[in-house]
Amino acid sequence: MGVIKQRGILFAALAASFWAISGILGQSLFTDYNFRADWLVSVRLFFSGIILLGLAKGWKKEAVFAPFKKKRDLAALLIFSVFGMFAVQLTYFKTIELSNASFGTIIQYTGPFFVILYESFKQRKVPSFLTILLLFTTALGVVFIATKGEFTNLSISAGALVWGIGSAVSLAFYSLQPRRLLATYGSFVTVGWGMLFGSIVSNLLQPMWQTSGIFTTGSMVSIFLVVTIGTALAFLLYLSSLQYISSSLASTLTAFEPLLATVFSIVVFSLPLTLFEVVGFLLVLGSILLIQKKL
């Protein structure tokens, strides 16, 4: 394996690790410091958007206001901001708030299946047998996780399950809708404006200057790390990895984020796992890794 490829793998792996850490820090902010998911989303989107646009302008030398010149592109960017960027962030952190980082991450990563189902419907083509089998395997894994094997009772709240499914659907939309924008304006400009416009919607619902959270040195450090390490730097590393390895390999590596989130949850929060939950995580993670090859 060449040094260049190793560098790409390292960048993608670090991105997955930082995203997983972001989820863990979010859970800590919710449980230990009484912050709310919608407040954290308002802060995360606003400051991360500014950071990414600043990098696009100062480092990448990109025309950050280019999308504003075409009404069609601006409208598409606004749609992405609300139903893609804002929705995927809110549903993800609400799921964590109502359950834990491990469950919130694993269920969001079932999003690629919704991408495949949408494209099959759009093309009026029945999904392949393998896709159907993997979809069933994923659903079975989620059931194992949500019930811990007690199939008449949910160990995860119904609210967490609903928000989690919403997170997966939002991730699918997030992956599909901005493709033309990304090809035209690049990732930094598209995602940067998506975050900043999304933060406007988020702050209308939950202003970041209004919170019941407890501000301490620890909570402030966690918020700072969620914005910088868990969002801006993770995104930068993932994009940088694409310069050295294929997008399929990069996406496969980031699919390990749910596994990392689970490991971190066990270490940090002493998360107990039953045999059914372990099997469920393996079923979902295995299905995700296999389905990545179809995208």
Describe the protein in words.
The protein is an all-alpha fold. The protein has one domain. It has helices at 3-32, 37-58, 71-98, 101-108, 111-122, 129-147, 158-176, 179-185, 187-205, 217-241, 247-254, 257-269, 275-291. α2 packs across α3 and α3 crosses α9. The protein starts with a helix and ends with a helix. The relative contact order is 0.22.
Summarize the structure.
With 295 residues, the protein is mostly helical. It contains 13 helices and no strands. The two termini are 24 Å apart.
Question: How is this fold's topology laid out?
Answer:
Elements: H1 3-32, H2 37-58, H3 71-98, H4 101-108, H5 111-122, H6 129-147, H7 158-176, H8 179-185, H9 187-205, H10 217-241, H11 247-254, H12 257-269, H13 275-291
Helix pairs in contact: 1-4, 1-10, 1-11, 1-12, 2-3, 2-9, 2-10, 3-4, 3-7, 3-9, 4-7, 4-12, 5-7, 6-13, 8-9
Provide the domain count.
Answer: 1
Mean pLDDT: 90
- Number of helical segments with 4 or more residues: 13
Overall radius of gyration: 19 Å
Approximate strand percentage: under 5%
Distance between the termini: 24 Å
Instruction: Describe the largest sheet.
Output: none
Please report the total strand number as a whole number: 0
* Percent helix: over 70%
Shape: globular
**Secondary-structure class:** mainly alpha
Question: What order do the SSEs take from the amino end to the carboxyl end, as H and E?
Answer: HHHHHHHHHHHHH
Give start-end ranges of low-pLDDT stretches.
none
